[in-house]
């Protein structure tokens, strides 16, 4: 392993520790915000109707200091990885070829999203190192350690890229990209940014150094550049790239893995050229869907391509749900509970936690072998401690439990294995796949999702032949299904490309309606009587929802919404404005059902004192990016006002 990789892993530890600290003090940071309450007298008023809204497009969005290298970190529920590219060589993406401690015979370009804490809750290790160390602990000792897995956190970092770039530079020369699911709300995105700040990855005074990438968007950016030899097309009847995937769903993916593996160079980092695009396949206005099937979530996004630059427009707001591959693990656990009893399984997980991890690792390797055409059983190794502890717990053998369970499709092997027939394994996939197919079916019924040329299936779960067949059956030839080689790295590579050109997606759809609560002049017959507030002889209507942007509205990159506010008192130094959101398009009042407070806009006007009696603070908010940004200026003095949006402290 080279110096760069070693230093990267050291920095990874720091980020993991920062995430743990944030989680320990803010366990509900990603919880759903509480419903909105009546604002009463908010201390702010719009200056006049003429200041209510003005949209501008900032063509300089994402411009800032030039960076030497872009490093992307893909946070996955089950596994994590990193990739990078130098801005002078954007056609070459470097990815980690192999993680130390990985499973033999497996392409370990990612590491498990696992973290191990000592008995006194100090950070110990992550990834394969955490898993292997925990495995080797004595059972009586392991229960005092804290082993966390399948949670959405991970990171790679580096400050020593000199041996790759041929020049000395520091962290300020690096643009960082962190991936998150598209269905994550603003608090979760801010949580990841806070972790990066806490780890010292990026300074708070230079937030542009870190950008948040939405996972299906990153996949979309990479997929549109695929060459014919870099993908499998299971939506046609013809052979492609030497593969015939329709004859045997999943066989093409197996052959593709061998093809990719044979082409790799024998060094730690794989350098991939991504200049060649499939422009011959894409025309102006073509539409395609990206289905990102990961460990924890499934994200879907719909894009339209604009030529000749190849910019992308989002046609329908990102959607999805918790339908990732860990749902299959839950079904397997339910099966074990049915056979051996939930009380035993709960006790075994507590008393023999390392053995439980071993059992789930064994199941993971076998579930990857599930396929529609499989006829021979799948054998799952039961750890000796499972067999031994069950006999002590119940007083009879595992084999006896299987005979008495009436679960006919699981048998006992004298080699100490559970023998599952293929139908039994496939049944564990069914609930998760059904959720995905239902969501896809609903999406394709939307008027915006018509005439789809390609459906790109990406993410680690996309390797499943069962999922591939289900998607193929659902589409019935309406779109071509494209699966990239090294499908688990698609998001990672796309995140690097996004970091090199964050302006590539020109139009997005707002997932929610955003606005603030304000006082408006009370109008008889228009406003409810219970909302009337009389102040200094003037009648006001309280709790009015002043809409910034509506749900599913198209928003151009850099587009801003302007509002002007004035302090309630001339001596006021800080203006705090609550931001509200809703899934409804039309919202009249912040007290309506489904409206909730989701953030706080803070304007610090210290040092901008003015002789003007009615001071105007002009605020500009950008909604066309992956995060909401705020800027403000004191109109009278033209001085910049510190503006920040907090989505976590709600």
UniProtKB/TrEMBL annotation:
The keyword Endoplasmic reticulum appears for this protein: no
Entry superkingdom: Eukaryota
Composition bias type Polar residues, residue spans: 47-60
Region Disordered, residue ranges: 34-60
InterPro entries attached to this UniProt entry: ATPase_NBD
Leader sequence segment: 1-31
UniProt keywords, alphabetically: Signal
PANTHER family linked to this entry: ALPHA KINASE/ELONGATION FACTOR 2 KINASE, HEAT SHOCK 70 KDA PROTEIN 12A
Protein name: Heat shock 70 kDa protein 12A
Gene: HSPA12A
